[in-house]
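Records of this kind hold a single protein each, on a pair of labelled lines. With that in mind, the following record should read easily:
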Amino acid sequence: VKLAIELMSTSILLNAQSDIKANTVTEDTPATEQTVETPQPTAVSEEAPSSKETKTPQTPSDAGETVADDANDLAPQAPAKTADTPAISKATIRDLNDPSQVKTLQEKAGKGAGTVVAVIDAGFDKNHEAWRLTDKAKARYQSKEDLEKAKKEHGITYGEWVNDKVAYYHDYSKDGKTAVDQEHGTHVSGILSGNAPSETKEPYRLEGAMPEAQLLLMRVEIVNGLADYARNYAQAIRDAINLGAKVINMSFGNAALAYANLPDETKKAFDYAKSKGVS
């Protein structure tokens, strides 16, 4: 009984001490209240707009339009025609875009005045308006008589004088027919030595790499097989060299024989060109 009374007394004492401590903490230590401050939006003055711009993400279609616009900016543009400008153009497309640096070459080597170039091809428009010289006084052949003299010296009994630009034209195909395809030879000759009138109603004026050179237009067509074809253009090569050509262009669209299968006279024509420094 004594032990039970002592345990009960101890329990009561411990409970009393706990109550005292709890009351002490509550009375001596006031509860701390945390105040959460909500930041207030900063007023923006109407007179001072923000320096930051809001960017809207591009959609795929917007990006495509941007690329297309950039490409158009880089592409050569035709000269704009307004009410104050004449409806004619003196510009060539090379004035706007010259990736091959032809103008630089012309500044160093000239535009071909006094030289003769030959084109051996399937057909030509020998009377095209782009066949002209700006300054006839510098031409290698001043007249038809000059050409006939050169032909006689080399035993050439064929070929015609067309004008100051086309000093020589002949059909080496020996078929007596008018060329059906005149586009390719005319096209190639224009790139090489075209010289259209100084003013045109088209957006651009045609001017070749050597616009002041005279042309030898030599038609060669496949009529009686590839071997005969090779003999014909071999004769054209020899005639071009004898008439003073330093450049000969042959860009055949049709199949041709491999060098090993060429007739001997064709191989000799190539050797002759090499010996004369003709390219």
